[in-house]
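Appendix C: a fully annotated inverse folding record. The material below is reproduced so that readers can follow the format used throughout the book. The structure is listed first as tokens, followed by the designed sequence.
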């Protein structure tokens, strides 16, 4: 990537800040890598089950909502180019430490639920393609062992770099390109049934407490789940301090990356629904794309695509578990939760207690919820955060910046806030069970805040930019 010119700027106190080594092309690839992962590989079958043959529509609608929310993030990262994200924007807009904490804790919980959904995907059809059929009682053990393995890797420490992310992203893209090339050739050769692309599910999702027309409820429910496929773009703002000229670089890079990812998702969805009947995609569960590849080209070695899928979900899970444990550690360092969560191993120099706690929570979740519930709950948590960020950008327009920056088109943050709030609400067809588990997770955070306040005292200020460090 020849566009990356490393520079440094003065940090706080006159020290040296992070090197600005990420140029436009590298940033585009980084954002694509953040968005790609578990959802398209593991939840395509579930989305299809909810919406029917019109599998492409929920992904398109999810992209539109994410795209509008990205405008808010772009305005804020251009205005405040610091590595903090939603917690920083919430803090600057509302000046309420407890609300800032809740946003940061919600983001952390979304990392745990995302990793848990990846763990469920790891123990699914793709693993069985490689090792053979597994007895029902073995799968939970595999899933738990997977999370324990991630905890060990996390404990030992992983040297992350954006350039390594390029390699990992390339492998994940390879799997989707296999679907597109083999599936596209099969469709052009006359295989499949294009009429399925306009078919919708006619029964409302189970546990729905509302009675909208079945088709609308199917679309909104599937979109709420498919939104999980587009999350990840918001994490890129944490690279602001390492990006060359972020106010100028971020807008084009993020929008290009999201457009590329959405295009790939839509093409994959169109091919999947054309080649494989809805009931077969649903039955395949986390192996839906593997079913597409096998239908398009029976001679293609299934074990190769299954291995790529396992790699994709492993990469997603590890990144999310690292993020969750570092956020918990950062909260302890900022003295807003008990300092025991800030314990660092003397030799490995990793936040061992935070790793143990986040891993334990993920294990509990995978034993209690299935992959679609975990994926949908991740979407729920982040949609709540996105609603707050879309409101924050409007509030912060009263605070002028001392440099030129991107500004979201008028009205976009308002529409994005309303759509995010709708997709997070019960009106989108979400079952009450999701809200119960989300409330329990956030309730744990409130409990930690209350215990810490009783022991340490009131914390009126903390630095949101240090929460993930």
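Designed amino acids, in order:
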């Amino acid at each position: 990537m020849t566009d990356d010119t490393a520079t440094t700027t003065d940090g706080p106190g006159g020290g040296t800040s992070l090197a600005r080594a990420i140029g436009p092309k590298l940033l585009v690839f980084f954002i694509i890598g953040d968005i790609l992962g578990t959802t398209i590989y593991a939840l395509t079958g579930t989305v299809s089950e909810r919406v029917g043959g019109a599998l492409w529509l929920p992904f398109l609608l999810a992209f539109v909502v994410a795209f509008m929310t990205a405008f808010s993030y772009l305005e804020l990262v251009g205005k405040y180019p610091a590595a903090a994200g939603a917690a920083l924007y919430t803090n600057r807009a509302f000046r309420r430490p407890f609300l800032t904490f809740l946003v940061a804790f919600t983001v952390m919980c979304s990392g745990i639920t995302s990793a848990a959904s990846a763990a469920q995907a790891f123990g699914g059809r793709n693993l069985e393609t490689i090792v053979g059929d597994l007895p029902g009682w073995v799968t939970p053990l595999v899933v738990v062992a997977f999370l324990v393995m991630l905890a060990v890797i996390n404990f030992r420490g992983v040297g992350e770099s954006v350039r390594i992310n390029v390699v990992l992203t390339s492998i994940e893209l390879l799997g989707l390109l296999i679907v597109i090339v083999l599936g596209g050739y099969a469709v052009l050769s006359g295989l499949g049934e294009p009429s399925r692309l306009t078919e919708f599910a006619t029964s409302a999702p189970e546990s729905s407490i509302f009675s909208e027309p079945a088709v609308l409820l199917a679309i909104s429910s599937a979109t709420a789940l498919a939104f999980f496929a587009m999350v990840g773009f918001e994490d890129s703002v944490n690279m602001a301090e390492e990006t060359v000229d972020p106010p100028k670089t971020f807008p084009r890079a993020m929008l290009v990356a999201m457009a590329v990812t959405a295009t790939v998702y839509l093409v994959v969805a169109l091919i999947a629904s054309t080649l494989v009947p809805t009931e077969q995609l649903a039955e395949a569960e986390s192996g839906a794309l593997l079913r597409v590849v096998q239908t398009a080209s029976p001679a293609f070695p299934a074990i190769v695509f299954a291995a790529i899928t396992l790699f994709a979900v492993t990469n997603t899970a590890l990144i999310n578990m690292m993020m969750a444990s570092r956020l918990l550690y950062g909260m302890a360092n900022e003295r807003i939760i008990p300092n025991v969560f800030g314990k660092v191993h003397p030799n490995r120099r990793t936040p061992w207690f935070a790793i143990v706690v986040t891993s334990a929570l993920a294990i509990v979740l995978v034993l209690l919820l299935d992959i679609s519930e975990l994926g949908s709950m991740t979407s729920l948590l982040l949609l709540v955060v996105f609603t707050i960020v879309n409101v924050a950008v409007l509030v912060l327009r009263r605070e002028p910046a001392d440099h030129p920056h991107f500004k979201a088109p008028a009205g976009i943050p308002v529409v994005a806030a309303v759509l995010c709030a709708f997709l997070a609400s019960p009106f989108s067809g979400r079952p009450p069970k999701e809200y119960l588990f989300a409330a329990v997770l956030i309730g744990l955070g409130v409990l930690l805040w209350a215990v810490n306040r009783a022991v340490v005292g009131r914390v009126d200020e903390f630095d949101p930019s240090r929460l993930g460090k």
